[in-house]
Structure formats: C-alpha cells, structure tokens
Amino acid sequence: MLCAIFLRLAPAATANLSRPGVMDAVAEAARGGSAPSVAALTALGQPEEFARLFVERLAYLLRLREAGILRGAGPFADLKDGMYLCNVPDEREAHRIMEADPFLRTGLIEPDYAIRRWLAAV
User: Which fold has domain 2-118?
Assistant: First the structure.
C-alpha cells in the first residue's frame, strides 16, 4: 500500500534549509546514496548541531529508501512543507516511520503530520 505523509517543517528547519546551496548539496549527495558531510553543511552556513541532526535524518531516509520503503521524500519549493511517499503494509507502519524521524523527535517537523493512503492509478 502506498501512503503519502504530508508534514510541516518547523521555522528553524526552514531557515536552515533555505541557506544557499544546501538543497543542491543534499540532492547531489542523496543521488549518490549518502548524506552530505557535516563539514559540507556547516560550510554552507548551517549551525553544527543542526547539520549533525540533518545528516542523521538523511541517513535515516536513505536507509528507508534502500529497504524499498521510501519511494520519495523532500520539501515543497517553499521549504515549509514536505512529503514522503512510502510503500508500507498499513498506516500504522507509516506512523512508525514518522515517529522515528530524527526531525520529528527534535521538533524540526511539526507534530501534526497527515498520512493519506494513495491509490496510484498509473
């Protein structure tokens, strides 16, 4: 079953993600199957604590992708909202995925995320 998880980023996450070059560095590293380094992110102006947490979160998402659970993830262009597309057996598993997200656990994702089952037609 496919589930879309819609989430809102906390203002601190949006502020750090909107620094020039950050999303490009993340996309490039993720295409290669890894997260950017903490040093690469701090060089782009992210505070070290945020950069460490961000790398942890990206590693988590990449593990989900490697396991065939996460089909896609990322923010919308405004960097305020985002979405995960997950292949899960039920909505309970989608909740478990969100509850384990390092950004949610530390308040960088707002707790009012929404999970919707998606009936892909094509």
Answer: Alpha-Beta Plaits (3.30.70)
